[in-house]
Amino acid sequence: MKFVEWNTIYLVGIKGVAMTALAQLLVDAGKTVLGCDVAEEFVTQEKLTELGITIDFGFSHQIPNSVDGVVYTAAHGGEENPVVTAAKSQSIPIFSHAEALAELFNAKSERVAVCGVGGKSTVSAMIAWIFEGMKNDVSYSVGVGEIVGLGRNARWTESSKTFITEADEYASNPEAVKRGADIVPRFSYFSPTIIVATHIRYDHPDVYSDFKETLSVYHEFFESLTPPEIAIVHNTDVSYLPKKYQNTAKTIGTDESATMRFVVHPTETYAGTTAATLIYEGNEYALKLKVPGTYNVENAAYAVLTCHFLGIEIEDAISQLESFNSTKRRFEFHGVKNGSTYYDDYAHHPEEIKAAITALDQWYPDAPKVIAFQPHTFSRTQSLLHEFSHVLSQVENLVLLDIFASARESDAKTISIQDLKTAIEDRQTQELFPTAITVVANYTELASHLHMLEPGTIVLTLGAGDIYKVHDLIPS
Known about the structure:
The chain has 476 residues and is of the alpha/beta class. It has helices at residues 17-28, 45-51, 82-89, 97-105, 120-133, 174-178, 211-223, 243-246, 294-309, 314-321, 350-363, 378-383, 385-392, 417-431, 443-451; strands at 8-12, 32-37, 54-57, 69-72, 94-96, 110-115, 139-141, 154-155, 162-166, 194-197, 230-234, 250-253, 260-264, 274-280, 283-289, 332-337, 340-345, 369-373, 397-401, 436-440, 458-462.
């Protein structure tokens, strides 16, 4: 029995953003969705409540008799999760999240997979936003709490020919990799007709030993392209592609050789507006976004060019993006409290952090700013310590929260927040940049620290963990 033929589906780790997106797709498809997760409230809580899904807390309960199959994620032990192992012992079919999503994705004739480190959620959301705004029939899955303004992070329509999804290089079952099994990347299950690769970089050090190993799985992914095949990448990453795509790939960048070039206009960019020009085949198109940063102009260029190849006029795509409000946890505005302005962003890789801080500077060049960062996973913090220390040493006022251990990371604590602080201080000594660093023990302490800031301060919280929860603790 195929996954798409199941009627009642049980999602283990249902509160994760990718799993919640799958739940939305299945509800749209008329399936009955049940699930389980920890009791802690996630950013997806509102959407799951709206969908009316029954959620069991913990992983030690009986699987309901009505369940046709179980879907699991990389978190909470993956395939070794007690609920999943119980399903196997009862001969209940199991699928990884990636396998389940791929069955839906591969059923469509136009299949857009957005991969890369940094930007894949936003690019996917922008493409979905354009299609929705144009009233075009579309299916999509975006790993965010919500696309602001759409009230959802996924949609399934039986009649649509186009499916847009994020495509992640992370292992489908990291626990098996730790035991010596081969890496099976999540995106390896997809058969796209268009691949958009924002930036091919090294990440997920708990799975990949180095960039060379990461690059090998990207090569295999590009080889999975099916006709009519289109590869869209940043022009600096072309050399990372398999040889047959190095001369045919469509490119995004600031260089004149790019298929679609973008130019940001700093004098027309200020809080609430980012101005730029997109240049394609000799024609110039004015672009104004409600989201900040050069990286979001770049994200918009990926989205516009992709939509162009899917039959949407460039002018129409740009027009739709003018009202794009981003997604939850991507430079999300959290209001003004006691005269200070608050934003939150999911950035957790050094390059993403650098881009987010630069975007903040573009919108608020003269205002005092505080960056609060919660590192995500011990393995990433350890492997990219040099890169983190370099980026964070440039911050004038920095607050560090303890390292967030992902549910998919079972390793012992190999590094501490004090180690990161020391690395940043060592870098400061070399670069003579006076960074004020405060380490806080918990959200209550962080909220108190931020509450005491001078009016007019701009605050940006960063991290893929749960640092966003501090915003509800800061008194108005």
